[in-house]
Amino acid sequence: MNGGDSAGRLVRPFTLTGGRTRPSRADFTLITSVTTVDPPPARAARPQPEQARILRLCVRPVVVAELAAQLDLPVSVVCIMLSDLLEAGRITARAPREISRTSDLDLLQKVRDGLGRL
Length: 118
What we know:
Layout: H1 3-16, E1 33-36, H2 49-57, E2 62-63, H3 64-71, H4 75-87, E3 91-94, H5 101-117
Antiparallel strand pairs: 1-2, 1-3
Helix pairs in contact: 3-4
């Protein structure tokens, strides 16, 4: 890696978030599923280049951790950009489905019973 590239990587996240260090919303975890809204809202402003890249990657549902890996950006930076896109109506975000602890224990019991019969 050359010196210019490493220096650019230090500045890049700061410029992508407009200097912000926290998202304006707390909607995103590593396993939140994100999908592009199609068609985009009529009032939507033209996205910045990295936002446009996010929108292309989210044509099909993708989780935040995978999105950050594909973009090669810190999750915190991706969450800030996702917050902006969510507020602009450009994406939807779905939290992971809650699984009750009781059903997990029931399932484990059934698996154990099934293995015991083998």
